[in-house]
Every structure is written in structure tokens, then in C-alpha cells.
């Protein structure tokens, strides 16, 4: 005997899939690709000079994004049930939402740190001293702030490469922040669809109106 499918369940399953793929697949793939790119670029920046701070080499943001993407792949493997009827499904979806929000914050911080460092480097006056690059914000002021980049024999190549890496970090982290924001929005909208304040009133159907 053929059983009739619930139309509501069919609609929820159709809304859960997009172009034949489940919802988190696209976001998880984007987060994984961008996370690997940010991590590799961060370690390349750390190899330029040993004196660069951790905030200036945001490989930590890329690692967070790789973890977020793995949670998204785990959510993809869990069999879908409407309205989070399984505890595992609800827990994984909540973890993915929270980690995506954490990734969004980390990427925004990485963009802010990279932009600040880039703006400083546009005002630097650098000289090579004992296989290290010494840069000053104000070359006229003897008490001006001085930045020292160790293990850098050529200041020109260091500043050009570092400027390029900082621009790439800003672009990658900005795109990744938008992806994480979109993932959080879609997760929230997929769960609640519409925002309600107070009591939700359901309109009467035509059959109910006739009976009354």
C-alpha cells in the first residue's frame, strides 16, 4: 500500500535542500576553502619576520573557520527531521550557529588588525640595521615610535610583501565574515522563518468558519 506523504513535510524537505544539495554544504565548503587560505597566508606572514605579533598573522581566524566547516559537514551527515526532533540534530545546529558567530567576530577582528597595521606601514620610514628592518612612524621626531622587524635583511622586499599579505588578509577575512553572517542568518531563518513578538494568532480556515 502506498502511504500519502504529508504536504508540510514535503515542503520542509524541499526548503531544506537547494539545487539537490543540503543547506550547509555550500557554506561549509566556502568556510573550509577560505579558512585554509587564511591559515596558510597567516603562517606565510609569520615566516617573513619572527617579530610579527599574533594579531598581525591571523591564522587563528582560519583555524576557527576550519572547525566551523567540519561541524557543518557533521550536520550534513545527520538525517534531517523537521523541527529538530532529535537532540543530536539540535545540538549540532546550535554548535554550527554559535561557531559561525564566533568565526564572524574573529574575521572582523582580523580585518581591523590588518587594516591598522597596513595604515601604519604606509607612514613608515625604514632602514636596515644588522639584518633587521627598523621602521619609524615619524623620522623627524627622535622620540617617535619605532618598529623592529627581525630576520629581514631587505626592508624594501619586506614592506612590499607585508603590504600585499595584509591586503589579502583584509579581503579574505571580509569575504569570510560575510559568509559567516549569511550562514547565521539562513540558520536562524530556516528555524524560525518569521520573527514574532507576543502571542501568535492563527487565522481561521474556511472549514472552521463554516462550522461556526
From TrEMBL:
Claim: Secreted is one of the keywords in the record: no
A Pfam entry, by short name: CD20
Membrane topology label: Multi-pass membrane protein
Compartment(s) where it occurs, according to its Swiss-Prot or TrEMBL record: Membrane
Principal location: membrane
UniProt protein name: Sarcospan
InterPro entries for the chain: CD20-like, Sarcospan
Record lineage: Eukaryota, Metazoa, Chordata, Craniata, Vertebrata
CC per GO annotation: dystrophin-associated glycoprotein complex; sarcolemma
